[in-house]
Amino acid sequence: MTLALLALTALLPGTAVQSLLEGEAHRFAQAWEREDTRLLEEVLGEDGIRLHLPGEEHVLIRPRQARAALGAFLERHTGGETQVTRVSLAGGDPERGFAEIRWRTGSPGVAEPTIFTLFVAYALENESWVVTEIRVLF
Questions:
Q1: If we measure between CA atoms, which residue out of 136, 23, 5 comes closest to residue 76?
Q2: Domains by residue range for the chain, with CATH
């Protein structure tokens, strides 16, 4: 799969690469919705990511630490559903892209659902898309 991704990046038009990025964005959204921090950790850049949560900001946090922070954040919300609303390639070397994901969730003691926007930045590293930044916007 990763060799195919590299070949597509080099040989096919941006639409094919965009489709692969869209697949990664949907995979991320599903993991987030299921609160699967193990899968979320697997897609994070090994050199660290930027993680922005409401009231918290981490610069170049390691995947294991990001998993712990995400787990603590997700525990404060009940259930929820995600929807990928936008996926775009941004170009560059290495290739970059981003996804915007709408997350509708509940919070203890709050009757109305809370809606967040997740901004997820990606880079093509070692022949696969990895997450380099997560911003959770309220």
A1: 136
A2: 2-137 (3.10.450.50)
